[in-house]
Write a structure and sequence with these properties.
Elements: H1 4-11, H2 15-24, H3 42-56, H4 61-68, H5 72-104, H6 113-125, H7 129-145, H8 147-162, H9 164-175, H10 184-200, H11 203-211, H12 214-224, H13 228-248
């Protein structure tokens, strides 16, 4: 019979760890001698070696008790499951490390690199910091909630902003922020925006996007809150598009 200190020395673990195994029910409490000290047998040593081996292999303590007494087939099956779980955790850690490296390099964790590069180019095109900030928030929301749709919208908008005529309309929209909401220039700008939208997209597409635009409306309402002029401009554009769609819609007989 050996003491807990000798047992720990033979197996290469601490006495505290052995007490944890007792508390978890992995290793039964041995009988005590007349002085009250635990006395362990060779079989306890064998069981402790099994426990230590499985623990070092990454087997959770909650599963060790069943595996030490199970068959070789059960141990092999459990090892396969644990390896699959470990592979998943490793993949997540690798992805986390990649994101941390991007953060360390100054890259945004919220948007794809192509979107960040596009936002940087907007400065060169003359857009205000206010506009760029609002557009960044819009893309963060869109890519987080609907990534497939976001890529389609992003491709379309970058092409529109690169177009000389449409790009100028975007700039005028940006600069209208501080206008008086009753300024006649807003109605004229809204009319040109509606004409450009009808020329670029089919009325059927505009009608469908309008019907499915709950999230864009939420975003637009937040944008409008920063400027009474933008709020009126948005209302004028929506009214113009509704008139065009209604005119285009077939009448029933």
């Amino acid at each position: 019979m050996i003491t807990i200190g000798q047992l720990a020395q033979y197996v290469g673990i601490s006495t505290k760890t052995i007490r944890v195994y007792h508390a978890k029910g992995l290793l039964p409490e041995p009988p005590r001698d007349a002085a009250g000290y635990r006395r362990y047998s060779a079989q306890d040593l064998v069981e402790l070696i099994k426990i230590r081996t499985l623990a070092e292999a990454g087997v959770p303590l909650a599963r060790i008790a069943t595996l030490t007494s199970g068959s070789t087939a059960e141990l092999r099956s459990a090892a396969g499951e644990l390896e699959a779980d470990l592979t998943t955790r490793i993949d997540r850690l690798v992805a986390t490390r990649a994101r941390l490296r991007e953060l360390g390099a100054g890259h945004s964790p919220f948007l794809p690199g192509e979107v960040e590069r596009h936002l940087e180019r907007l400065h060169e095109l003359g857009f205000s910091d206010r506009w760029i900030g609002l557009e960044r928030d819009l893309w963060i929301l869109t890519f987080a909630t609907s990534p497939d749709t976001a890529h389609r919208f992003f491709t379309d908008q970058t092409a529109a902003q690169a177009d000389p005529v449409l790009g100028r309309l975007y700039l005028e929209y940006d600069r209208a922020h501080d206008l008086d909401p009753n300024d006649p220039a807003l109605a004229e700008l809204a009319e040109r925006v509606v004409d450009a939208a009808i020329e670029r997209y089919s009325l059927d597409d505009l009608a469908r996007d309008s019907a499915e635009a709950e999230l864009p409306r939420l975003v637009q309402s937040s944008i409008n809150a920063s400027s009474p002029a933008w709020e009126r401009l948005d209302a004028l554009i929506r009214a113009g598009l509704r008139r065009a769609i209604a005119t285009h819609a077939p009448t029933s007989t």
